[in-house]
Write a structure and sequence with these properties.
7-stranded mixed beta sheet; 0% helix; 11 strands; 4-stranded antiparallel beta sheet; globular; mainly beta; 51% strand
């Protein structure tokens, strides 16, 4: 099993920035696709960003492109989500996920391991 723990969420004003971190433990490996998803109350979990095992390929949902950046540090078993120019619409619980694969998946059902989530609230 792989355990994922997110951190870095909190309350921020519109236009501000946050950096989320996700640390993996257990049977960790750099050969994981890592993804970030988010879920607002009453809505389904949606894809935010993904990164392949080398960090050479990244994918973003269109509304986040140019504002959010996903990266990973395999030596630290950590994936990051840098969020800039935050908007109230970004308010959600953000989840880190890992997939034993080499290609980034866009569906939550493709991922094998999940963190507990971290709350991000953006005020106007």
């Amino acid at each position: 099993q792989v355990q994922l723990v997110e951190s870095g969420g909190g309350l921020v004003q519109a236009g501000g920035s946050l950096r989320l971190s996700c640390v993996a433990s257990g049977r960790t490996s750099s050969s994981y696709v890592m993804g970030w998803f988010r879920q607002a109350p009453g809505k389904e979990r949606e894809f935010v960003a993904g990164i392949n095992w080398r960090g050479s390929n990244t994918y973003y949902e269109d509304s986040m492109k140019g504002r959010f950046t996903i990266s990973r540090d395999n030596a630290k078993n950590t994936v990051y989500l840098q969020m800039n120019s935050l908007k109230p619409e970004d308010t959600a619980v953000y989840y880190c996920a890992a997939d034993i694969a080499y290609r980034v998946g866009l569906r939550s059902s493709e991922y094998d391991y999940w963190g507990q989530g971290t709350q991000v609230t953006v005020s106007s």
